[in-house]
Amino acid sequence: MRALICALLLAVLSGCAALDRTPPTAVHQPMSARPQVAMQMVPANGAIYQPTHTRPLFEDRRARLVGDTLTINLVERNTAQKASNASASRESSMSGGITSINKLPLKGLAGLGVEAGADSDFSGEGAAAANNLFTGTITVTVIEVYPNGNLLVSGEKQVAINQGNEFIRFSGVVNPATVTTSNTVQSTQVADARIEYKGSGYINDNQVMGWLQRFFVALLPF
């Protein structure tokens, strides 16, 4: 009885902890990075030119260094359809008999006939369709600069709504040539893009099958 009570308490505590857990992610890590610190910090002297400033005065502000931010316009729209059908049939028959037996034992078998046949038919049909639409904006951070100049970006937007949290995550490789002067880029121009929209809280947990129910579903053969 004591073991059963302990197990129930652990289940309740784990359920309470699950309400505030952060859903797992598959986007590139880390999801943020600090700018690289200069080797030698020189105090500001009040002039327009600062030795520690990493960018020329007349250079645009497009992201190109670790720690820079970049705005992603999410314009994902994917449509897919698939249909297939198959059919097969097979038929066979066999017949035989004993017409007459003269001057041989077992002549009572004369006139015996044997017939056998088999018939097989199969048909199958399947169809699948998907239509996904995802729009919005999210600002990400450059976490790595590749040798060819491409930028690996990653970021997260978290929104708390009543008793739950919504997580929007994005990561991918950006070609600096596709970044506009307003420091934005379309999500369709990002390579190896990973987009996630997940939630946490008791509302999201109630939409997921319980672990014990999943256990029995996995064991049932029908």
How many E strands?
6
Strand content: 35-45%
What is the percent of helical residues?
Answer: 10-25%
Give the class from helix and strand content and strand pairing.
Answer: mainly beta
Tell me, rounded to a whole number, the average pLDDT.
77
Low-confidence stretches: none
Order of helices and strands: HEEEEEEHH
Number of helices: 3
Taken from the alpha-carbon principal axes, the silhouette is elongated
Q: Describe the biggest sheet?
A: 6 strands, mixed
In whole angstroms, how far apart are the ends?
Answer: 34 Å
Rg result: 35 Å
Strand order of the largest sheet: 5-1-2-3-4-6
Give descriptors for this structure:
222 residues, mainly beta, 3 helices, 14% helix, 44% strand
Record the SSE blueprint:
Blueprint: H1 2-18, E1 69-97, E2 113-145, E3 151-161, E4 164-174, E5 184-186, E6 191-201, H2 202-205, H3 211-219
Parallel strand pairs: 1-5
Antiparallel strand pairs: 1-2, 2-3, 3-4, 4-6
Description:
The protein has 222 residues and is mainly beta. It has a domain at 23-32 and 54-77 and 130-222. It has 3 helices and 6 strands, in the order αββββββαα. Strands 5-1-2-3-4-6 form a 6-stranded mixed beta sheet. The longest helix is centred in the first third of the chain and has 17 residues, at 2-18. The radius of gyration is 35 Å and the shape is elongated. The two termini are 34 Å apart. The model has no long low-confidence stretch (mean pLDDT 77).
